[in-house]
């Protein structure tokens, strides 16, 4: 493996470690990264009740894991669900007071704090690199979740 390839792998592993450390509470009954993403989506992106199908599309996963995560969040008291009055097939999800309180302790805020303390030029470079990785991934090698050593 070339030195540049090792450096790229090392950078990817550091990103993984940073995110893993943010979600260090992994005991039974703890809130999972997907559940945090759902709470964030409802609390920061969408005002009012959100259709469960929209949440799934927004966080980029299929309906089944989102449905399971929402049921777990209901057990935590973080969200309330109900049928859409205009379309009874659709489930709407809304944050509760507990969910809003939980968002104040969102583990992703620790990463945001680290970014906030970066030098302004580092922030610009970091944001640019992230946009480069996520906006047009097909231009930058295999999709996330795929691996190729070619």
From TrEMBL:
Coiled coil: none annotated. InterPro entries: HTH_MarR-typ, MarR/SlyA-like, WH-like_DNA-bd_sf, WH_DNA-bd_sf. GO terms for molecular function: DNA-binding transcription factor activity. It holds the Pfam family MarR_2. Signal peptide: none annotated. PROSITE patterns: HTH_MARR_2. Gene3D superfamilies: Winged helix-like DNA-binding domain superfamily/Winged helix DNA-binding domain. Residues 1-135 form the HTH marR-type domain. One of its GO terms (biological process) is response to stress. This is MarR family transcriptional regulator.
């Amino acid at each position: 493996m070339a030195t540049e390839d090792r450096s790229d792998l090392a950078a990817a592993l550091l990103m993984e470690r940073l995110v893993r450390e943010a979600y260090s509470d992994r005991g039974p009954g703890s809130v999972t990264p997907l559940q945090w993403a759902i709470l964030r989506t409802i609390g920061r992106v969408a005002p009012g009740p959100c259709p469960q199908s929209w949440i799934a599309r927004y966080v980029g996963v299929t309906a089944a894991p989102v449905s399971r995560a929402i049921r777990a969040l209901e057990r935590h008291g973080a969200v309330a669900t109900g049928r859409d009055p205009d379309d009874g097939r659709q489930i709407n999800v809304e944050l509760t007071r507990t969910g809003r309180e939980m968002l104040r302790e969102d583990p992703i805020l620790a990463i945001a704090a680290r970014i906030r303390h970066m030098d302004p030029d580092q922030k610009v470079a970091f944001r640019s690199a992230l946009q480069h990785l996520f906006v047009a991934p097909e231009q930058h090698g295999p999709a996330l979740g795929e691996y190729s050593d070619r």
